[in-house]
Amino acid sequence: MTTAKSDPTTIRRLYGRRSGHKLRQGQAALVEELLPAVSVPEEGPVDWTRLFGDERPLHFEIGFGSGEHLAYRADLLPDHGFIGCEPFLNGVVGALVHIRDKHLPNVRLHMGDALNVLERLPDASLRFVYLLHPDPWPKARHAKRRMVNHGPLDLIAAKLQPGGEFRLGTDDPTYCRWSMMIMNQRRDFEWLAESAKDFLTRPGGWPETRYEAKARRKGHEVWYFRYRRA
Ligand SMILES: C[S@@+](CC[C@H](N)C(=O)[O-])C[C@H]1O[C@@H](n2cnc3c(N)ncnc32)[C@H](O)[C@@H]1O
Questions:
Q1: Pick from 213, 114, 230: which is nearest to 162 by CA?
Q2: Which pLDDT tens digit goes with each residue over 160-186?
Q3: Which residues contact 196 (CB under 8 A, 6 or more apart)?
């Protein structure tokens, strides 16, 4: 299986805090009861059959925040399988609420680093990878911590099927420029934009995330990138 070892500068623990405000009783019950039932196994290879019992198109979301995009997509495509990773406990609770309220049997969660699950998936197994508003790490000296770096991208490329899609959204101008520069260096991804409109306008089937809504309220521009795995 491919790992992110090709770029030794990749920082594996890209995220910061794991929990924020204290969970209410109902939320704690979801973590105790529903989370174990929908969790990606902690060790060993992960594939369709182990997760869903059958072979199906797989989608993978890195840092799903509160899970609204993950839940929207899973609801839209009930025959597809969705894996969401998020180290932040309150975000995981948000996703659990969506899974319960929308009755989504096709979602699996990992509370932790997405790269840990990604490297355990079979190569060429994913139809979509989503990275929406990744932590920007705005200081130049922290640039190596950005998810858009060749180490994580090598892993994403290995796990996407040929023709599979990598979707990246950001409202951070530095991250936007950085991503365009890094993605432009890659021969294994084709940018699916023919004109500026394609990355300035929200594509269909790409719902607004909580973080994006917050950015819009602050008056930020949002950029939507779609890349096809060559
Ligand atoms: C700025 S928030 C955006 C959340 C969500 N995608 C949205 O658009 O509302 C970035 C998220 O990425 C998560 N994150 C950072 N590093 C991660 C990693 N290595 N694996 C999974 N999630 C990660 C953070 O915990 C955080 O919730």
A1: 230
A2: 999 999 999 999 999 999 999 999 999
A3: none
Please state the rounded mean pLDDT for residues 142-158: 97
Whole-number pLDDT of residue 22: 84
Q: Does the active-site annotation cover 135?
A: yes
**Sequence ranges of the domains in the chain:** 57-229
Q: Within its chain, how far is the Cα of 87 from the centroid?
A: 12
Mean pLDDT, the chain, whole residue set: 92
Residues with beta carbon inside 6 Å of ligand 1? 14-15, 62-65, 85-88, 91, 113-115, 132-135, 209-212
Do the beta carbons of residue 121 and residue 59 sit within 8 Å? no
Atom from ligand 1 closest to the CA of residue 211: 9
The CATH superfamily holding the domain 57-229 is: Vaccinia Virus protein VP39 (3.40.50.150)
| pLDDT cut 70: percent of the chain above it | 91
Integer Cα distance of 27 and 149 in angstroms: 35
